[in-house]
Amino acid sequence: MDSVQSFWPVSHRDDDFWVCMSCLTEVFYRKVPMPDCPSCHGVSTYEGFTLDAIRDWGTEELIAKAVAAQETATTTQPPVESAAPVEAAD
What we know:
This protein is an alpha+beta fold. The protein has one domain. The protein is 27% helix and 21% strand. It is built from two helices and five strands; from the N terminus they run E-E-E-E-E-H-H. The strands form two sheets. It has a three-stranded antiparallel β-sheet with strand order 3-2-5. Strand 2 and strand 3 form a beta hairpin. About 9% of the residues have low confidence.
């Protein structure tokens, strides 16, 4: 039986990438898996980083995962539509 991974959304911040500090092999963009890390099953082990910070210290695999996560998120998010102006009622 295939299980679907659930996530907690994380609001937009400067450090949009969440890395599991237990295994250092999982990274997610603007979300954190629940209930635990899919690789090491660590709980509450995520810390936020920018992509530049991950490029400074991460492995090539972690950097590639971060870039792929961001690309996937930006291509699957619907475009933001501007709201029509609201007219004041007399």
